[in-house]
Amino acid sequence: MTESTDSETGDRNEESLRSPDNTRGLSRRRLLTGLGTAGATALAGCSANPTTPDGGDLRIGTLHPPVTLDPIEIRDVGSAQMAEKIFDSLYAYDESTELVPQIATGRPQTDESDRRYTVEIREDATFQNGQSVLAEDVKYSFEAPVEEDTPKSWRFDMIESIETPDDRTVRFNLAYPYPAFTHSLTHEIVPKSVREAGREKFAEEPVGAGPFEVRHFSKEKKAKVVRWKDYWGEPKPAIAKITAIHQESPITRMMSLVSGRNRIIEPVSPRIRDLLSKRNGTNVGLREGHSTYHIGFNLNDGPTTDETVRKAIDYCIDMDKEVEKFIAPVGERVHSPLPEEMAEEWDMPLQKWRDMSVPRNTSKAEQLFSEAGVNKEIEILVPKDPKRKEIGRKLATGIREAGQRASVSPTSWEGYLEKHVSGSASDYMVYIDGTHGGPDPDSFVYQTLHHDQEGKTQGIFYDNADLMERIKRARKTSDREKRRGLYESIITEALEDRALLPAYSYQNSFGYKDTVEGFRIHPNAQLNPRVVSPNNVISIDDTDFLGSDQGGGSR
């Protein structure tokens, strides 16, 4: 039993173990009884075959089910996590955010203007259908998101042109120097001919150049990939099969881990973290991640176009209290669209932003609602995420206590991805969203606020031409201090206008069995669990499976 973490999170007292999904009213004693039953079930079911044949099956219970496997279209973390195993990129991240050549032969060559990047492609790089990875495929992979106006277009719309002097050379010409462009080079490479032969089929049965091939995909339910025996890259995968199963309930995920049904679960609910970390045979891993969550308002249609209404809603929830209750200790309060660690690294005015948060004040909210003359029910849209549902319910309760009608509308992941960016008040007035970005502030600010991403990654529809111009300007300068000043002014103004209410961020959290060896967590949630990385592979060792589940010691 271990708990690994990159930062000290501290313990907190266990409350009554309640959550919006099958845990309401569940006592600690009943939960511990269930854990014992699950452990006994594991012994009964697994004692006949404790060994792992040919690498084994890595079963993962996850809150984030894949919606598509096409990396050109992906806009959710669950889809990205599965695509990472199927596709390779020009460059991959190391254990942090340094680039390592993957399909590329070496580092990109740049000119003095920082507007031209030249990349050479490995001759042995091959797709799973036997075709070589050629410059034409790379060119297509970077042009398609912009030409098709997909949610990922923001990562590549600074590219003015792409040249392919030969089959192994790609030259990216940028319209302006973009400081974060090297991170864009981690985009997955797809075979042009296969995807163009049928995009809908490709989204479910893709062909990549990565270490695993698709065997089964059921949208929002289950995905199975198997080791590609002819994988050209290094290191080779040790695991034979990966099966990811959607499990919304944190209790279901926990029981599946303890019983041995799953070997990894994600995320780990705050209320079960300590129970898992103290149990023989299971471990909890934590690492700070590149993600934030916020309450977004529909500024395009409905009552939330009125700033007075948005201010009233802000007074309807004590976000500090709710984050401490439902998110800590595997997450923390944030006060901007940026992760706190990134905001500190960029010397942002965190105290100033913290001071802009308001305490819950029902009478003030009631007064503001009255001034605005609201006569419609406030609809809060969330996906099937227990924590977002809980925060949404607390917000709805506060709105009702201020004299207004309010409801929470949980919907499927695919339905949420479509609805929360529509701009229609019939779909949402308020939504709770997460932004998964990279190591640069642009990946959070642009996705969350810029009007180019309306209908793609955000549904705020913030009409502020000067602020949009500043976001663009921040992308075009390499001067870090100038960028810092621009992002400070952008975020401060958005907070003052109540375009969004920052809420919380999560650590990347996993529960995993002792039998999973080499397990490491990456700060980029979209890469986890990383079964094959430049310097590591995950493997399964069941030789001591029975001993560990009978309390045979901790690791």
From TrEMBL:
InterPro entries attached to this UniProt entry: Peptide/Ni-bd (IPR030678), SBP_5 (IPR039424), SBP_5_dom (IPR000914), TAT_signal (IPR006311)
Annotated stretches, region: Disordered: 1-32
Segment forming the signal sequence: none
Protein's name in the database: ABC transporter substrate-binding protein
Solute-binding protein family domain sequence ranges: 98-453
One cellular-component annotation, GO: ATP-binding cassette (ABC) transporter complex
Compositionally biased intervals (Basic and acidic residues): 9-18
Coiled-coil residues: none
PANTHER family: OLIGOPEPTIDE-BINDING PROTEIN APPA, PERIPLASMIC BINDING COMPONENT OF ABC TRANSPORTER
Family, as annotated: Belongs to the bacterial solute-binding protein 5 family.
